[in-house]
Amino acid sequence: MPDKRCCPVTSGAIAERVVVVYHALSSVVRNEQKESMMTKADLVAQIAARANMTKAAAERSLNAMLESVQEMLAEDGKLTLTGFGTFVAETRQERQGRNPRTGDVITIAASKVVRFRPGKMLKDALNK
Fold first, then answer.
1. Among 30, 31, 75, 128, which is least packed, fewest CB within 10 Å?
2. Domain 76-128 belongs to what topology?
3. Can you tell me the distance from the alpha carbon of 18 to that of 36, in angstroms, rounded to the nearest whole number?
4. How far apart are CA 27 and CA 6, in angstroms?
5. pLDDT tier at 76 (50, 70, 90 boundaries)?
6. How many CB atoms lie within 10 A of CB 24?
7. pTM to 2 decimal places
8. What is the spatial distance between Cα 47 and Cα 83, in angstroms, rounded to a whole number?
9. What are the distances in angstroms from CA 43 to CA 29, 50, 61, 93?
10. Which residue ranges make up each domain of the chain?
């Protein structure tokens, strides 16, 4: 039986039904949120299935690729995967901002950011 503490109605048969419905709706919302995103574990499983390899080998491959992308952006500042897109490391200039808690004007330090520009194949796949 689901925990009744999460629901404001806590006594009787109606309360039990409300709690069951509450938990059912919560799981639907969680499932909808999960379906709209892919975790690293999901990606590893998909790579393993498509490449006919173990999940451990797929995870090592994915980690090697991600490390290579990081190193390439740190060294050269640009990585192009033809058809997929281009990753570019850019420096965001120092700028003025406002502390939302106090309202004081603050200086936000310069920082590096990564921008991604999708390639034609990726754009076409998304717009099917």
1. 128
2. HU Protein; Chain A (4.10.520)
3. 27
4. 14
5. confident
6. 11
7. 0.62
8. 19
9. 22, 11, 11, 34
10. 1-37, 40-75, 76-128
Tell me which amino acid residue 40 is. K
Tokens coding 128: 């099917």
Q: Which residues in 56-110 belong to E strands, given as ranges?
A: 78-81, 85-92, 95-98, 105-108
Number of other CB atoms surrounding residue 32 within 10 Å: 9
The DSSP symbol for 2 reads: -
Say how far apart CA 89 and CA 115 lie, in whole Å.
6
In the predicted model, is pLDDT for residue 109 greater than 50? yes
Supply 88's token pair: 């570019």
Name the band, by pLDDT with cuts 50, 70 and 90, for residue 36.
confident
98 three-state secondary structure = strand
pLDDT class of 128 with cuts at 50, 70, 90: confident
Q: What is the pLDDT of residue 33?
A: 56
From the CB of residue 89, how many other CB atoms can be counted at a distance below 10 Å? 17
